[in-house]
Structures are given as structure tokens and as C-alpha cells.
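Contributing: when you submit paired examples, paste them exactly as shown. First protein:
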Amino acid sequence: MTHDYLSFTGTDHLGLSRANEDRIRILTRNGLTAAAVCDGAGSFGAGAVAAELVSDALTALFHARFDALFTAPADELRSILAETVEQTLLSHAVRTGTPARELACTILAAAVHEDGRCLCAHLGDGIILQKNKEDDHPSVVSCPMTGLAPHSTYLTMNCDLNRYLRLYRWETRSLERLLLFSDGAAEHLVRLQGGDGWVYTAGEPDIQAIRSRLHAAKPRDDHSVLLICRT
């Protein structure tokens, strides 16, 4: 198993005191790669802190308890993940005096085992895709989530995680790559094309092709990409 990633500050955020608020965490050991891409909400005072805390907590949880999480009933799995996120953020809020509602971020998290087992969690915007050996192009695992208000999405500490946190589990020997794109990257790498839904449009799903596409697009928002490759 290998992995690759990139994360850059969007043009609208250059020079700001709170620049890139995306956070990426990756932990690989014993045939398992656990990773997360969390986008801190810039409209909240502690979005970057939330992204760092949540990405750390979920990669550690996925790695420590992967076998149990992969086989747990769906309601139990969602409850474990929701409690982990909420307790991590609430503990920080109490310890530092940070208002809990300011600890807001999105979640893209995944664990991929070398035997083909995959576990993903998603909250908010951004997108998760997979590329199998027999496929010409990556297909969508989880598409961006639209919140209750126009141009909004769901964030930690500002929605019921037991209701809105999406979970995916599957097993396949044909998996080649799992791709996690934050919102700033997704808007330049995938397109919503009528009845076809979300379609990957960036050529080869490798880090160099993606980097070139984003460099040419000059995204205004922070943009992060994580690829987990099963060899």
C-alpha cells in the first residue's frame, strides 16, 4: 500500500492570518492505511483546530479498531464515530474555553486494508471516489452534501452526527485507488453531469495529473487531495 497527497492555500486566502485550514492525516502500519482530510470552516473561529483534532482522532480510531469497526452493526459504528468526534471537540472546548460551535469542520476519512477491506466516513462537502482495476475511470463513493440552507453543508458540532454522518464499508480485491478531495479540489476535478451524476474529469487519477489540473485552475479555495493506492 502506498499513498500520496497535496494541500495548497487557495488564491482568496493567500496572505490571510488563517490561511489553509485543510488538514491531512495518514497512518500506515501492518497492511492498513488510515487517513483523513478535514476542511476547517473559515467562517468559524476554530475551524482549523477542529480539522486537526478530528483528523487525528479518526485516523487513530480507524487504525486501532479497524477489524471491530468493519464488522460492527451500522448503528453501532455510527455511534462510535460520532461519539469520538464529539468528545474530542468537546474536551478541547472545555480545556481551552473555546466555544464548542466554533469547532466546525468537514470530514473525509478512510481506512484501506491490503486485503481489500475499505471503511469510509463522510460529513459535509468534498467527495470520495474509488478506482477499481476493471474500471476506466474512478467512480463516486460519496458525493458532496448539501445543507439545509442554500450553499451550505453539514459540519461537526453544528449537526446531529448520528443522523448526517455517512458511512461506507465494502471489500474487493480489485480496488486500486481511493481518492479523497476537499471541496476546493473537488470543484475542479469532478463535474455534475446531468443523469450521469458526479463524474471525474481530471485524466489519470494520479497525483501528478491532479496537481497539474489544479495548478492550471488556480483554485480560490484551499484544496487538498489524498490518494491511497493498493498495490
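Second protein:
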Amino acid sequence: LLAAPTKGTVRIGGKVAASEADRVLARRRIGFVATTPSLIDASVRANIALPLKFRGVGRIESEKHVADAATSFGVAALLNRAAPTLSAGEAARVSLARAFVTRPEILFLDEPFVRLDEPTRLALTRNLAAVLPTTDATVVFVTHDRSEAAAIATRVVVLESGRIAQEGDPARLIEHPHTRAAARWAGFENVVDGRLLESRAGHERVEIAAGVVLD
């Protein structure tokens, strides 16, 4: 179930998910991948099929969806393997396949690659970036890694203390951060306070403690 919000409202497709029944229906339209794969002690096939089983999907239809999802994330050869025998990268792939198998309208990915080594993380990032355009899902991808954001996102939102510090196109935000939080996320090491005096034709005059800097 989706927990009832302590403040504000949750809207999905313009409709408020107010009652418990609304939240149950909304949850069935949502996929989720956590930082640590929460696979059950069963085969890869059974893990990917689990959401379909909860929804009462028939065996033949379920097998087709499982095969498609497994192929998309490169685990088709592992369907008969027991989940506890998987490597961290394989488990992450199975978690992604399980989240996509129901073809969700909304997908939440909570730093799904953060615990992986660099080569595995890069491979999964490329894999996910290739799969996303084939779906109609709205994806919310939480990451501290700007390379992941640049590869996957069409829009980046930088948060600081629960508030939006800056948002926009990933490449532009990385090249031209407008806030201290966005600059830190984009990798800028030297950040100084200043006051914009003038902006004209792509050039700015900024007053800092040491004087006026022309850009």
C-alpha cells in the first residue's frame, strides 16, 4: 500500500489518491527498485514473475512478460538460477526486470546502482538508458552521480534539505549551475559568493569580495 501523506496530496494522472482503495489501485501502476535488491529465496524466474502473480496474471501471459523483461536486462540465461547465488550486478538486473515486468506507468529507482563496482554500474546505466525509451513509464531516478543523471535523465532536479535548488536539462545544469547545491552536484570545487551586477549578450559582471569579475 501507499502510505497516506502526512501533508499535502498525492495525485496520479490528475486524480487524488485519497482513500486506501485509491492507494491500492495507484500502487498497482507503480514499480519500485530499492538500493539493495530485495529478492526472495527462489529462482530468478519466480522473482521476476512475483508482481504478476500478485496481480493474478495467467501462466502463459506471465511467462511471456517474464521472458521479455529478462531479455531486456540480460538475465534470460539466469532464469533457472537461485536468487541467492547471484552476483550483486546480476541481482540488480533481476530487480530491474521485476520492476519493469508489469509495465508500470510510474517507476521509482532509489539509487539502484550505488553499491555496484564501476564497470557493472556503467553497464547497467547504459542498459537502463537503452530500455527506457521503449517504455511509456515516467521514471523518478534518485542518484548522487551526475554521470548517471546525464546518461538517463531528460530533466534533473537538485534537492537540498528537501527543497528544489535547481532543475532543468541535465547537460545545461551541469555546465551552468545557478545555485551552490547544484554547483556541488555538478562537480565545481571553487564556489564563491557574489552579486550579479549586469548580464548582457551572454556576459556577466559579478561583484565578489576581491572586486568585480567579468565573464
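If you have annotations for the second protein, write them as plain sentences, like these:
DSSP finds eight helices and ten strands in the chain.
Helices lie at 20-27, 44-54, 59-72, 88-100, 118-131, 146-152, 170-175, 180-186.
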